[in-house]
Amino acid sequence: MGPVRIVIVGGSFGGLTTAYELRKRLAPERAEITLVAKDDHFHFVPSFPWVATGRRRLEQISFPLAPPLASRQVRFVNETVTHIDTAAKVVATDAAEHRYDYVVIATGHRSANEAVPGLGPFDGPGHSPMSAEETEELAQAIRRLLADPGPVVIGAAPGASCIGPAYELAFGLDHLLRRRGLRHQVPISLLTPEPFLGHMGMGGAGTIRQLLEAALEERDITYRTSTAITAITEDAVETADAAPSPAACSIVIPPLAGVEAVAASEGLVNPKGFIPVDDHYRHAVADGVYAVGVAVALPPVDATPVPVNFPKTGHMTEQMAKIAAADLAARLDGREASTAELSARCILDMGDRAAYLAVDPVRPPRNRIPTVSEGRPWLVAKVAFERVYLAFVRRGKLPPTTLGW
Questions:
Q1: Phi-psi region of 76 (alpha: psi -120 to 50; beta: other; left: phi over 0)
Q2: Model confidence over 174-231: pLDDT tens digits?
Q3: Residue 278 lies in a domain
Q4: Backbone region of residue 204 per phi and psi (left: phi > 0; alpha: psi in -120 to 50; beta: other values)
Q5: Residues 136 and 222 in one domain
Q6: Residue 43 or residue 2, greater confidence
Q7: I need a surface site. Which of 27, 60, 91, 248 has the fewest CB within 10 A?
Q8: 175 and 71 in one domain?
Q9: Which of 323, 339, 355 is the last residue of a domain?
């Protein structure tokens, strides 16, 4: 009997972590691991706001996937998945078919920009930092803003689940404009679907609400909560609850949806295109299917006047990938691995300093009182984590810490 065939779909945090963890647990003679991804580079997504504001170039936070995967004896296939047949156990791409005994779906998301008319950025005036291409386009828009200042609206659409970057962009842009002596020419507004600042899809945590309220107010950044952004025009952001907000530049985090190829695969997803799983991140029905990261269906923590979905961070994706890899390896030995509730640790860039937030578990009520801290050392830690993480993963290793998401 030959080695078990494992196909991993996706080359970002979920896919890369799963590949490294599986190879650590399963020698090449036991498992033939193939990673399929449409992008041949890994991008450190938490640094996209820095790329947008000019503190990083995309090539500084990216590297080609093939070399580190080859060092771990993981085959890399640079193809676009078109369909997953769970009955035949085949992952079909635009170039081939890959048969599997087990598949781990770590495709990430599709930005549902169509939920907000005008969001664009390539077919409308709005901007978003949700992909490498969109982030580079946003960086160009911010350079234009510096040359021709005007009001800025930053926010998240109803149903968004990745709200942290909106805060980071508001703080980062404020910091950039102050350094350029242009802040007095650029009013900044933050519009969020959250019922209060710092909700972030997890019901808030400790004193993060008070910290964000004070930070926005001291920087003269106006904000509105429970706000539903309905459309973006060339010079304004429209909402359901107030008059349009003038905007020379609008940056809006969209709601997320399932990747089209996965959503179109029979029996894999829920109506929103996300994959239902159990505590081990195994598919609820399909045999041999795991899912990790943004592709996973996770219900909101509470009902809010304007929808806010459960957050999915790099740190949480890494946890899912490790749990799934441990369970898959254990199943090959005829046993079941342990699992755990998701926790969250993140560092929120605030321009001249940063805020650290740790919750365990993410979904309240929690075992521990959340940790909330603010200061310049956390900004240093965030920069250090980016460098450490990239240094490790580009050499085929996972970093020894998960601090800094």
A1: beta
A2: 999 999 999 999 999 999 999 999 999 999 999 999 999 999 999 999 999 999 999 9
A3: yes
A4: left
A5: yes
A6: 43
A7: 27
A8: no
A9: 339
In 211-299, the DSSP E strands lie at 221-224, 229-232, 236-239, 245-246, 249-253, 256-257, 289-291
pLDDT (0 to 100) of residue 122? 87
Q: Is-above-0.90 flag for pTM?
A: yes
Residues forming a β-bridge with 277: 283
Residues 124 and 245 in one domain: yes
Residue 336 to residue 280: CA distance in whole angstroms: 9
- Token digits for 396? 């085929």
Tell whether 312 is covered by a domain: yes
The active-site residue, picked from 4, 31, 139, 162, is 162
Please tell me whether residues 194 and 103 are part of one structural domain: no
Q: Catalytic site residue 162?
A: yes
Strand runs labelled E in 18-80 = 31-37, 41-43, 62-64, 75-78
Same domain, 89 and 125: no
Identify the residue whose tokens are 């933050």. Answer: 190
Which string of b and e fits 17-40 if b means at least 16 CB within 10 Å?
bbbbbbbebbeeeebbbbbbbbbe
60 and 178: one domain? no
Given the residues 9, 52, 190, 346, select the one marked as catalytic: 346
Other C-beta atoms lying within 10 Å of the C-beta of residue 338 = 10
Domain CATH code at residue 282: 3.50.50.100
Q: Which domain holds residue 228?
A: 113-255
Beta-strand ranges (E) seen in 258-315 are 289-291
pLDDT of 311-328, one tens digit each? 989 999 999 999 999 999
Amino acid code (one letter) for 387:
R
Residues 251, 119, single domain; the answer is yes
In a domain, 359, yes or no: no
Choose among 321, 319, 326, 383: nearest CA to 349: 383
The average pLDDT across 125-138 equals: 97
> What average pLDDT does the segment 70-82 reach?
98
Residue 365: inside a domain: no
Q: How many separate domains does the chain show?
A: 2
Could you tell me if 292 and 145 are in contact, meaning their C-beta atoms sit under 8 angstroms apart? no
Q: Is 249 a catalytic residue?
A: no
User: Residue 136's domain is classified under what CATH number?
Assistant: 3.50.50.60
Residue 401 has pLDDT above 80, yes or no: no
- If residue 380 lies in a helix (H) or strand (E), which one and from where to where? helix 376-393
Give mean pLDDT, residues 323-341.
95
